[in-house]
Write a structure and sequence with these properties.
Strand order of the largest sheet of chain A: 3-1-9-5-7
CATH topology of chain B: Cytochrome C Oxidase, Chain A
Number of helices of chain B: 18
Oligomer: heterodimer
Structural class of chain A: alpha+beta
Structural class of chain B: mainly alpha
Order of helices and strands of chain A: HHEEEEEEEEE
Order of helices and strands of chain B: HHHHHHHHHHHHHHHHHH
Largest sheet of chain A: 5 strands, mixed
Strand content of chain B: under 5%
Number of domains of chain B: 1
């Protein structure tokens, strides 16, 4: 108890039992704090699982198409857009737009060229205009499902196979599909 | 820090250095383990930060005085909105209530000091370093972060080195809060005087007990969120980076898991202060004490399941929106219990209206108004329209400023005689209240109109149609800021030449620090625990 003299200036009558209780409670609370720090990180996989379970945020995952009934009475114009963000790639669709019927299977190709002198890994992220059209746009095959690594000067043609859901709201007559290629941080290539 | 030493109340009130440990001068404050010294340091620190953050608010309002860009460039404007929020929340309001906790909890439960006196010293002295990191970020290349106090990804990835300093500052602030909370919980649970059962504690201690649990549960989550931001920035992880398989919306979920309980971390101690002040000036015991305790606990539990009402617009499913909407509106029930209990406490009381009571009643009116706009914002269809407009700014300033700050003023005027042995100037105190009340509404009431008309927040420029109310708001802001210098003058005047306080300056006050201790409170109190009947 000799080392605790300073504390006892303020609390002369504190019993050893109280000190022991205080120590035990504080350790427990510190464990709770450490566990909550871990909980913050546990939210990452939890969030992912909730998104998969509820079908939210599924733009980067292949869709399961159940109903393949083609609705020939409607035509939807799909406009294709491409962006390369700080990655040193040239990236563009081979066609700018395509008219499809809801329920009809269609394939388009994008071309990407690594114009830098280093190998670069990139990931394409799709987005839709209007954003609510995303859930009716089913991609069966897409280069955006995985990361792409291109050697210096390499040129690659990459397909997207998709079906527009027949349940697409009547008011939507065109959908813009836009891909942005981002460099995957921490991989080879310049930052 | 020298201003803390020069103006400290106890240092003037009695010069018996034998009681202050073996050091004097600055080292006394650096090494002190006395809860009253540390409480005073917390309060002075928070007041300094309040002036710093307030100055930033004035830069924002000056720029918004008229449309177009006149005073600062947009980048600096963003830095101002960001740092104003961070400094007010973490540097001003939270430390102010920790200051109250340090001063009052040991005296109100009959304990000689906090459970871990040296840890308490460390909790405080972490703060100046954290604040220095935040301020230093302005002098880094690229300046301070301009991402908003919520620090949303992916914007945080694009900031300069100032962002890293801010992240470390938040780590340190969080550490200070967690240590302080562990100390408060341990003190309240283990150090109460014989006979002081939990349900006999003043409500202020109850609100702090529950607040401290909220802090232990949520500050580490914020620390995790900013750590992920840090590793995304420098170590190649992709928590919030879509290109690497992460998701920026994930950041919002983690942040608001901390962020909504944080709102109650700020509000609950304010409820506690008001629950001491209103009964004292009504000369009646607090109405519905037990229901007040349960309401505080209910608010704390509900605060963990409402976070996504801050992010209705991220594209969550309708079921999610409905869940968070119903949970949020449910919080109005325990909050309503508290408001009605305060009103019932005043009902048929013999009321007097000294400055602390004026601030408490001001709190009651304006906080309730902020609660109502909160209910409006909790409704999904309305919120989608009002998201990120000045309506939201008006709403949270009604609960943060008219809620927490008014309550802190009420508490300082109420306990100043107990702390220092001197009375403040009642006439000037009332003047301070009325100026604060009028200018506060001038700033923020009109922002409801701006928000409803569609003016977005955090933008340095606006269309001409918003000019009138922005001018009014800016005039109010400068009036409000100057009124707070009057507050500083009132406190300094009380310390220097205030009338000697009577033993019981407020006849209705009945907690232990008033009934069992002399005025001013001695440097060491309750070395022998009182017996509570």
């Amino acid at each position: 108890m000799a080392e605790s003299v300073d504390n006892r200036v303020d609390k002369p009558n504190e019993s050893p039992e109280t000190r022991e209780q205080n120590r035990r409670l504080s350790v427990r609370l510190a464990v709770v704090a450490a566990a909550m720090f871990g909980f913050g990180f546990a939210l990452v996989p939890l969030y992912d699982q909730i998104c998969v379970a509820l079908g939210i945020n599924s733009v980067e995952r292949p869709s399961q198409v159940v109903n393949t009934q083609v609705d020939r009475s409607r035509t939807v114009t799909i406009e294709f857009d491409s962006n390369a963000h700080n990655i040193g790639w040239r990236f563009e669709p081979l066609v700018n737009h395509l008219d499809v019927h809801p329920g009809e299977l269609a394939t388009v190709e994008y071309e990407v060229v690594n114009v830098t002198d280093k190998p670069v890994t990139g990931q394409a992220i799709p987005s839709y205009g209007p954003p609510s059209a995303g859930e009716y746009f089913h991609k069966l095959e897409c280069f955006c499902f995985s990361q792409q690594t291109l050697q210096p000067g390499e040129r690659r043609r990459m397909p997207v196979t998709f079906v527009v859901d027949a349940r697409l709201p009547k008011g939507v007559s065109s959908i813009a599909l836009s891909y942005t290629f981002f460099q995957v941080a921490g991989r080879e290539g310049s930052g | 820090m020298s201003s803390i030493v020069d103006t400290h109340p106890v240092g003037h009130a009695h010069d018996d250095h034998g009681h202050h440990g073996k050091y004097s001068g600055l080292m006394r404050w650096v090494t002190t383990t006395n809860h009253k010294d540390i409480g005073s340091m917390y309060l002075w620190f928070s007041f300094i930060m309040f002036l710093v953050g307030g100055t930033m608010a004035l830069v924002i309002r000056a720029e918004l005085f008229q449309p177009g860009l006149q005073v600062v460039d947009p980048d600096f404007f963003n830095q101002m909105t960001t740092m104003h929020g961070l400094i007010m929340v973490f540097g001003a309001i939270m430390p102010a209530f920790v200051g109250f906790a340090n001063w009052l909890i040991p005296m109100q439960i009959g304990a000689p000091d906090m459970a871990f006196a040296r840890l308490n010293n460390w909790s405080f002295w972490l703060l100046p370093f954290a604040a220095s990191l935040l301020i230093l970020s302005f002098f880094m290349p690229g300046g301070a972060p301009g991402v908003g106090w919520t620090m949303y990804a992916p914007l945080t990835v694009q900031q300069g080195i100032g962002m890293d300093l801010t992240i470390f500052g938040i780590h340190i602030l969080g550490m200070s809060s967690i240590l302080g909370s562990i100390n408060i919980i341990t003190t309240i649970l283990n150090m109460r005087a014989p006979g002081m059962t939990l349900m006999k504690m003043p409500l202020f201690c109850w609100t702090w007990l529950i607040t401290a649990y909220l802090l232990v549960a949520t500050m580490p989550v914020l620390a995790g969120a900013v750590t992920m931001t840090l590793t995304d920035r420098h170590f190649g992880t992709s928590f919030f980076n879509a290109a690497g398989g992460g998701d920026p919306v994930l950041y919002q979920h983690i942040f608001w898991f901390f962020g909504h309980p944080e709102v109650y971390i700020i509000a609950l101690p304010a409820f506690g202060v008001v629950s001491q002040v209103i009964p004292a000036f009504s000369r009646k015991p607090l109405f519905g004490y037990a229901s007040m305790v349960y309401a505080v606990a209910a608010i704390a539990i509900l605060s963990f399941i409402v976070w996504a009402h801050h992010m209705y617009t991220v594209g969550m499913p309708v079921t999610g929106q409905l869940f968070f909407m119903y949970a949020t509106t449910l919080i109005a029930v325990p909050t309503g219990v508290k408001v009605f209990n305060w009103v019932a406490t005043m009902w048929k009381g013999s009321l007097t209206f000294e400055t602390p009571m004026l601030f408490a009643i001001g709190f009651l009116f304006l906080f309730t108004l902020g609660g109502f706009t909160g209910l409006v914002l909790s409704l999904v269809p309305v919120d989608i329209q009002l998201h990120d407009t000045y309506y939201v700014v008006a709403h949270f300033h009604y609960v943060m400023v008219a809620g927490a700050l008014f309550s802190a003023f009420a508490g300082i005027y109420f306990w100043l005689p107990k702390w220092t042995g001197r009375m403040y100037d009642e006439r000037l105190g009332k003047l301070h209240f009325w100026l604060t009340l009028i200018f506060f509404n001038l700033i923020f009431f009109v922002q409801h109109f701006l928000g409803l008309a569609g003016m977005p927040r955090r933008i340095p420029d606006y269309p001409l149609m918003f000019e009138t109310w922005n001018k009014v708001s800016t005039i109010g802001a400068f009036g409000f800021g100057l009124s707070q210098l009057l507050f500083l003058y009132i406190v300094l005047k009380a310390l220097k030449s205030g009338e000697k306080a009577p033993q019981l300056p407020w006849e209705g006050a009945d907690s232990l620090e008033w009934t069992h201790l002399p005025t001013p409170a001695p440097y060491h109190s309750f070395e022998t625990p009182p017996v509570v009947k």
